[in-house]
Each structure stands twice: as structure tokens, then as C-alpha cells.
């Protein structure tokens, strides 16, 4: 399966218990053997699949991405993405959000993953902090993650903690100055997205 070109639309799909769950169309910024970078634009609409477990965004009536937008850096095999956030009309860089998730798997239309709830925030002007530990443990108790998967997620969390504590982050800080192409329209879900098969 080939790489995407800058400007392509790639569908970021979450798969839970072997079934598609939610999908977000993203804009490809860079793609290659070592790094996949995508942008979620403000106003991007989500697609929700019929699933035994209703997605929490759907329960909350959250149908579109709000805010300035986020850039996501993915390395093959990593069980997390590095998300960059900005604030205000001047796009002041706010910091890095390390989103624990299943290592991405390429598909014909984008890539599949699953958010793992446990996250870390490393602001540009302060110390890093762990987020959503209680939410993650509740999801384990509710059966979203089985015990083995939950333990793998906890191990990833420890690895991220060690990296942030040691200051041995791998990504290029120049990404903080990145800006989206003003000519890019907000990506939309293509016709037939509901029928896109699992890889």
C-alpha cells in the first residue's frame, strides 16, 4: 500500500472490538516510511458507525471538530500520536498532547487506530501532566479494553512518562511553527465511507 501525498484526504478510523466505530477525515501533511502527519481542520464532521457501544462524542451531540485544529504526528509502531495545538487568532503554540492509541494500520482510504483514553499534556510553558487516568480505568472496568490490552496501555503510559521526564522527545520542534495551507477546504467524508472494509 503506497503513501499518501500532501493534501490528500485520509480517513482516521477508530475500530473497537473488531468493528468500525467513528471516522474523521484528515488532511495529509507528510507521509513516508518513518512518519505520517495529518491535520484535523476546524469544522471537520465526524462519521459514526452503528456499534454496540455508542461513541461518547455521539452521546454528547458532538458532530464536528471545534477549535483551531490539530496536527497529529504518527510513527509506525508507536502506541500514541503527538498532537500539536494552537490557541487564538494568532495561532500561539500551546503545547503537545500525547494521545495514547493503537498503532496505526494503513487502509486504502486512510488509517485505523483506537483511542486509549489515557493521555499526557506537555504545555509550551509548564510541566507535563497525565490526563484522564480515572476515565481510562473506568473504561477498563466497563470492558472497552480487556486486561491484557489495558496492561499494554499502562506500559505505554510509563514509556511516555519516562520520555517526557528525561526530555528525550523525538519529534522536530519546528512543527510548532507549521501552518495549514489556506487553500485547503475542510475535508469531508467520501460517498460510501460506511462500506469501507476493514484491512
Folded structure, characterized:
InterPro entries: DUF402 (IPR007295), FomD-like_sf (IPR035930), Ntdp-like (IPR050212). Keywords: Hydrolase. Residues 55-167 form the DUF402 domain. It holds the Pfam family DUF402. The protein is α+β, with helices and mostly antiparallel strands and 199 residues long. It is built from three helices and eleven strands; from the N terminus they run E-E-E-E-H-E-E-E-E-E-E-E-H-H. It has helices spanning 56-59, 133-142, 147-166, and strands spanning 9-16, 19-31, 36-40, 47-48, 70-74, 80-87, 92-101, 105-106, 110-113, 115-123, 129-131. Strands 1, 2, 3, 4, 5, 6, 7, 8, 9, 10 and 11 form an eleven-stranded mixed beta sheet that branches. Strand 1 and strand 2 form a beta hairpin.
Indicate the overall shape: globular
Helix content: 10-25%
The CATH class assignment is Mainly Beta
Rg on CA atoms, Å: 16 Å
| Oligomeric form | single chain
Q: How many distinct folded domains?
A: 1
CATH H-level homologous superfamily name: FomD-like
Number of strands: 11
The ordered string of helix (H) and strand (E) elements is: EEEEHEEEEEEEHH
Question: How would a textbook summarize the main sheet?
Answer: 11 strands, mixed
Report the end-to-end length measured between terminal Cα atoms.
11 Å
Helix count?
Answer: 3
Instruction: Return the CATH topology.
Output: FomD barrel-like fold
